[in-house]
Structure formats: structure tokens, C-alpha cells
């Protein structure tokens, strides 16, 4: 399968100019040049920068010109450090991956779609010239499967518009169910040779999001070790998150086998085969374990998923650098960070 050179081992900068307090004070203090240098010292090759529309647009769609400097600056910091970068539009006006946050009907409203296209044309005008170290991610985590066809249409139109300005910049496209690897199968044949198929992986959610109170049904006192069998993982999922079909047992030969590498291998297989058949790069834009899990268990999860990333040459970007309940630079990871970095 094609490798995503320059984007094999990265980290997300969640919470900086996305999913945050949209204030100048926050932008100026949450993430700085020295953080880029720390990431470089970890041996990583890129960062993924989620951006909410609120950074650069007001409610009426007028551009906030002075705030583009935050994107300008991080690109320059990356160039100085020798890092690559993914510019990810995490939220667009009228839609985000938050539950119930499509109240403005982005997938049905042509005016909102036009605003989305214009923003990407603006980004292409400003940043297409950095294509040697920068790529574009159209939109983070389409949710419901019913958006599949509209999203295929919208993403294709957006790509066409970007291509008039930046003909060869790499463009990342993901699918429904929050960029599930399963949704890769319903993505269109790539528009051209510079399209990248993008997915996220937080499987099994019952482990990676234990105690996460934003997960329906999750309990704040629930803990789960990684040293479980497929059957035990499946039972844990069904006890708290029965609305999520874990499909756990379909990815093993023996339900009493210890959970691990084999799951990820089988879970990714169909997407890997499709990407290989179509000659397209496959990339995991988010993956990780909440800071409520035991650190040693977290390390075990990373070791197992890393084996499959390495086997198929899949580039990836861990969630997340700082805070956001997953922050690798936070104290929770102190005991494993030096070991963990080797498996990113």
C-alpha cells in the first residue's frame, strides 16, 4: 500500500483553535513554538491542527483577518522544525461532530455548503503554496450514515474548487460514523492521485473511553484493563454500551483468545485492501486512549495497534498533544511517555 511520507507518526493539537474557548488569550497561550520543538524532539514527523470556523469567520461568514496569523505561525514553526502538517477543518458553520450540532442543516442547505466551499478556497489561496509540507483535511468526522451520499457530493465539489487553486496539494477525505474505518468502503473512487482516505480509531470504545462522561451509558467509576479476552471485552461493551454493536467476536478465531493485534488487523483489512486496489493512501487521523485508563494498559493498547499500522504502512496522528482528556504531554502519561513515544 502507498505510504504517506512525512505523515507516518504525528500528534493532534486538539483544544488550541478548536473545541476551545475562542478567545485571543487562549489562542496565544495554549500552544506555542516551543511545543512544536518538543514534538520534533519526540521524533514525530507531523502535527494535525484542528481548526474551528470560529477562528477565522464571524457568525455572518466574514473573515477575521487577524486570526489567520495563528495558522500562518504554526506553518512557519513546522517548517523551521522540519515537520509536516495537516490543516483539519474540525467544525464548519452549520455542522460539527457534536451530537445534535447539525441543527442548521449543513447537508441539506446549499448556502451553508457554499460558505464551506468559500472557506476552503480561501485556505487554498493562502496555504496551497506549502504543499511540500502541508495537506488539507476537508471536515472532521461526518456522523450519521445517512449523510454518506450528500457528503460524497459535497466533498467532491469542494475538491474541484480547491483543485482550481492548488492542483496537487494532498486532500484528506473521511466517511461517516465519525470517520470509521468501515466507512472508507463507501468513499468515492479518489478524484485524483493526491486524495488520501482518512479514518479514526478508538476501538474498542469501552476501553479507550472508559469513564468518559460524554459517552452515553458510560459510568464514571467504570474501569477496564487491557488484559481481557475478546469475550470479556464484548461483554463489557454490551453491559454499558449495548447500543454500540462491538462486532468484537467477528474479529477473532477464538472468543477466549486475548484481545490485541489480531483485532486491529482484521478491523482494518477491508479498508487496507480497498486502498491498495485503488492505489490510494490510507491514513489514521485520530487514535488514542483516555487519561482515565491505567497508563500501563494504555501502553499495551498502543503496542498492539502500532503493530498493524507498521504492518500496512499506515500513517497516523495520535489524539492529542495536550489536555482534551488525552494529553500526552500531561502528568498522567509521565510514567510511560518515553516508552509510549516509540509506538506512535
Structure, described:
This protein has 344 residues and is α/β, with parallel strands linked by helices. 36% of the residues lie in helices and 13% in strands. It has helices spanning 24-30, 33-41, 68-81, 110-127, 148-163, 176-179, 205-208, 230-240, 261-278, 295-312, 337-340; strands at 9-12, 46-52, 84-91, 134-137, 171-174, 195-201, 281-287, 315-318. α3 (68-81) links the parallel β2 (46-52) and β3 (84-91). The mean pLDDT is 96.
List the defining traits of the structure above:
eight-stranded parallel beta barrel, 11 helices, 36% helix, globular
Secondary-structure blueprint of this entry?
Blueprint: E1 9-12, H1 24-30, H2 33-41, E2 46-52, H3 68-81, E3 84-91, H4 110-127, E4 134-137, H5 148-163, E5 171-174, H6 176-179, E6 195-201, H7 205-208, H8 230-240, H9 261-278, E7 281-287, H10 295-312, E8 315-318, H11 337-340
Parallel strand pairs: 1-2, 1-8, 2-3, 3-4, 4-5, 5-6, 6-7, 7-8
Amino acid at each position: 500500500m502507498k505510504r504517506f511520507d512525512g505523515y507516518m507518526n504525528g500528534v493532534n493539537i486538539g483544544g488550541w483553535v478548536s473545541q476551545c474557548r475562542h478567545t485571543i488569550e487562549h489562542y496565544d497561550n495554549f500552544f506555542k513554538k516551543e511545543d512544536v520543538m518538543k514534538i520534533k524532539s519526540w521524533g514525530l514527523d507531523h502535527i494535525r491542527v484542528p481548526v474551528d470556523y470560529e477562528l477565522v469567520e464571524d457568525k455572518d461568514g466574514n473573515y477575521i483577518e487577524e486570526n489567520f496569523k495563528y495558522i500562518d505561525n504554526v506553518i512557519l514553526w513546522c517548517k523551521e522544525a522540519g515537520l509536516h502538517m495537516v490543516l483539519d477543518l474540525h467544525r464548519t458553520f452549520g455542522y460539527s461532530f457534536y451530537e445534535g450540532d447539525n441543527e442548521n442543516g449543513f447537508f441539506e442547505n446549499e448556502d451553508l455548503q457554499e460558505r464551506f466551499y468559500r472557506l476552503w478556497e480561501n485556505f487554498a489561496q493562502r496555504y496551497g503554496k506549502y504543499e511540500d509540507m502541508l495537506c488539507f483535511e476537508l471536515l472532521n468526522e461526518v456522523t450519521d450514515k445517512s449523510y454518506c451520499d450528500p457528503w460524497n457530493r459535497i466533498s467532491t465539489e469542494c475538491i474541484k474548487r480547491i483543485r482550481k487553486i492548488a492542483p496537487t496539494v494532498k486532500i484528506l477525505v473521511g466517511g461517516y460514523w465519525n470517520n470509521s474505518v468501515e466507512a472508507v468502503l463507501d468513499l468515492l473512487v479518489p478524484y485524483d492521485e493526491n486524495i488520501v482516505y482518512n479514518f479514526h480509531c478508538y476501538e474498542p470504545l469501552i476501553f479507550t473511553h472508559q469513564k468518559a462522561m460524554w459517552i452515553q451509558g458510560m459510568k464514571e467509576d467504570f474501569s477496564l484493563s487491557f488484559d481481557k479476552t475478546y469475550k470479556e471485552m464484548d461483554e463489557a461493551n454490551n453491559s454499558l454500551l449495548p447500543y454500540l454493536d462491538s462486532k468484537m467476536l467477528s474479529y477473532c478465531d477464538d472468543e477466549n483468545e486475548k484481545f490485541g493485534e489480531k483485532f486491529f488487523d482484521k478491523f482494518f483489512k477491508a479498508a487496507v485492501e480497498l486502498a491498495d486496489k485503488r492505489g490510494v493512501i490510507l491514513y489514521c487521523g485520530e487514535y488514542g486512549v483516555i487519561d482515565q485508563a491505567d497508563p500501563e494498559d494504555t501502553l499495551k493498547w498502543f503496542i498492539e495497534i502500532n503493530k498493524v499500522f507498521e504492518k500496512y504502512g499506515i500513517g497516523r496522528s495520535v489524539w492529542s498533544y495536550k489536555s482534551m482528556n488525552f494529553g500526552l504531554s500531561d502528568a498522567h502519561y509521565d510514567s510511560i511517555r518515553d516508552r509510549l513515544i516509540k509506538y506512535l
